[in-house]
Amino acid sequence: MDEKAYIEKARILHTNLKTYIKDEIETGSDQYHAFVESMKGYGVPKGRLANAKSLYDKFVLLENVGKLGVGNYDSLRQMVKSSGLDELLPKINETDNEIKKLRAVSGESTGHIARKRQHDHSTGDARLPEAKQSRVDTGSTRDVEILQSFFREVDFEVDVASDLTLRELEQRFTDVKQRLNDTIAKDNLYCFVCAIMSHGNKDGIATADGKMISEETIRKRFTNNYIPNFAGKPKVFLIQACRGTDLQDGEQVEDDDISDVTAKNNDVIEDDIIVTVPNDADTLIAFSSTPGYKSTRMTVSGSWFITTCVEVFRQFYKTDHLEDMLVTVRERVAQKEREHSKKQMPCVWTSLTKRLFFKKTS
């Protein structure tokens, strides 16, 4: 096994372990409070631990101080034991052993994993970039984990890809298109979501080899003429990347109550012929910022855009469709402010012809 394959598989095991623990410990329960209490004394400032709302946030803090990481579970075992959660130990030991087997085959060490991640790209039904363990980019770790957690909760098939060169990224897109165009997928896949997190500029998104790919190029890879068996089904892209070097200013406005006016069209055309759709139909791209401007990502809490997306999705996915939720995302991100009153404005390009709900089916 080569180094890259080892890193990928070990990171997936590590992320799955954290997801498992998060799902097994009910938030607010006595066991939850005991587990959080056990985290104290491991070098994490108490104020930060208290402010970290979810177990994922708290795991990030432990990773920042070197008390948790891929194949680094001694402290986690102690916390589990001291909080009376011994039933979690078999899963921890199983994950640790699997990582050791991978490391033995590859000849690598876990230290490599902490140094290799620089760019994140992803593709698939809800394909999300793999979590980084590097302390200099823990905001990406947060984004990755909350995206994976949400889409798994709503029954998406989640896949991960990291550190892709331009050629590797294009090959991954080709593989995904083949999967979406498969006749089996036609009846079994409802929609496709791709989250991409990387550096970027006005020309597009940076790949691991320093090359660029534009958002328009990505969109055109997934038009209906390339995947006819998936025509008419939603294709969604969430892109967390700078689109320039400027910081956006803000202006004070009156908080007017503006009502939406919806035009009604009573014309109905009934026809029995086969329905066709335009090649560009049923795609949505949600950008973290408007053209020319930077996107903000915090070291611990993650990026403004991705964390707000997941926050809003969790709150409203049972009642609201995606485009309505993204209006709320834009509103909430627009209210945030960094130093010197600098702002960020997400935006959306869409050709969706249906309302897309993430609500789980019964």
Automatic annotation (TrEMBL):
Gene3D superfamilies (UniProt xref): 3.40.50.1460, Death Domain, Fas
InterPro entries, per database record: Caspase-like_dom_sf, Caspase-related_regulators, Caspase_cys_AS, DEATH-like_dom_sf, Pept_C14_caspase, Pept_C14_p10, Pept_C14_p20, Pept_C14A
PROSITE patterns: CASPASE_CYS, CASPASE_P10, CASPASE_P20
Residue span(s) of domain Caspase family p20: 138-246
Positions with biased composition (Basic and acidic residues): 120-137
Top-level taxon of the source organism: Eukaryota
Caspase family p10 domain segment(s): 273-360
Residues spanning the signal sequence: none
A Pfam family that the UniProt record links to this protein: Peptidase_C14
Region feature (Disordered): 109-137
Family, similarity comment: Belongs to the peptidase C14A family.
Protein name in UniProt: CASP7-like protein
Species: Mya arenaria
Origin organism lineage: Eukaryota, Metazoa, Spiralia, Lophotrochozoa, Mollusca
